[in-house]
Amino acid sequence: MAEKGFISNKLKPWIDARKKYQLSHAQVQMARELGLNPKKLSSMANHKQESWKKPLPEYIEDLYEKRFKKKLPDDIRSLEVRDATRRKRKAQRKLNKIINKDNPPPSE
Q1: Cβ atoms within 10 Å, residue 18
Q2: Is the overall model pTM greater than 0.90, yes or no?
Q3: Chain-centre distance for alpha carbon 92
Q4: Residue 3 falls within a domain, yes or no?
Q5: Total domain count for the chain?
């Protein structure tokens, strides 16, 4: 079983981006569903010199609304909760596979 509080390397860039750009869990989820790259968010972020750009959270929300025709995702959960749920399901499937291997169904 994975240790508690463990975060996969796949999600670490998103967590860093959430902290760096002060994004909410919903905005990070929207960006992930849009297929944005967390390493490229700096080019989309509003810098002080680029006053014509929207702030990054607003930009992500606008893109999401244009693509999906809704303001927010249906199920908003943090990355940590999503990862923990995924790991729990994976461990349960692995356990079920071992149990089923040891106890095959009765043949007719």
Answers
A1: 19
A2: no
A3: 21
A4: no
A5: 1
Count of all residues that appear for the chain in the document: 108
3-state secondary structure of 9: coil
- Is 83 inside any structural domain? yes
**Comparing C-alpha atoms, which of 15, 57, 22 is closest to residue 38?**
15
Closest C-alpha to 57, from 87, 86, 79, 36: 36
Half-sphere exposure in the Cβ direction for 48 (13 Å, CA): 0
Torsion-angle region of 29 (φ positive above 0: left; ψ -120 to 50: alpha; else: beta): alpha
Q: What confidence tens digit (pLDDT) does each residue in 40-56 have?
A: 999 888 877 888 888 99
Instruction: Name the DSSP class of 35.
Output: T
Range of the domain at 25: 12-102
